[in-house]
C-alpha cells in the first residue's frame, strides 16, 4: 500500500508500507498523518480532509501592498502632470500661431 504523509494538509512524504506508518508530530506538535493514496500523489500536494482528495498546490495571487498602491497613484499623478504641461505648451503654441 502507498501512504501519503500529511502535515497540515500538505503531503510531506510518500511511503510504501503494509501498515500505516507513524511519524509522530513535528517540532511544533502538529501531527503527521498517514493517508492511503495512489501512485499519482506527489510531494507538495494538498489534502482535503473533508473530501479525501489530493490536489495540486495553487499559490495565491500576490495582493498589492499599500506601498504598491501609493506608488501606482504617484506614477499616475506624474503622468497626468506631464500630460497637462504638454497640453498647456501646445495651446500656447497654437495661440502664437506656431502650430
Explain how this protein is built:
The protein has a three-stranded antiparallel sheet with strand order 2-1-3, with no helix packed on it. It has a two-stranded antiparallel ribbon with strand order 4-5. The longest helix has 30 residues, at 66-95. Helices cover 30% and strands 25% of the residues. The protein has one helix spanning 66-95, and strands at 2-7, 10-16, 32-37, 46-48, 53-55. The mean pLDDT is 92. It contains one helix and five strands; from the N terminus they run βββββα. It has two domains: 2-55, no CATH class; 61-99. It has 99 residues and is of the alpha+beta class. Strand 1 and strand 2 form a beta hairpin. The relative contact order is 0.14.
Amino acid at each position: 500500500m502507498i501512504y501519503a504523509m500529511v502535515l497540515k494538509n500538505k503531503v510531506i512524504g510518500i511511503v510504501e508500507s503494509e501498515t500505516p506508518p507513524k511519524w509522530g508530530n513535528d517540532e511544533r506538535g502538529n501531527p503527521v498523518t498517514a493517508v492511503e493514496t495512489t501512485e499519482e500523489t506527489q510531494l507538495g500536494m494538498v489534502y482535503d480532509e473533508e473530501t479525501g482528495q489530493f490536489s495540486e498546490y495553487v499559490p495565491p495571487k500576490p495582493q498589492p501592498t499599500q506601498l504598491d498602491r501609493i506608488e501606482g497613484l504617484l506614477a499616475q499623478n506624474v503622468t497626468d502632470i506631464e500630460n497637462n504641461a504638454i497640453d498647456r505648451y501646445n495651446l500656447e503654441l497654437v495661440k502664437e500661431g506656431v502650430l
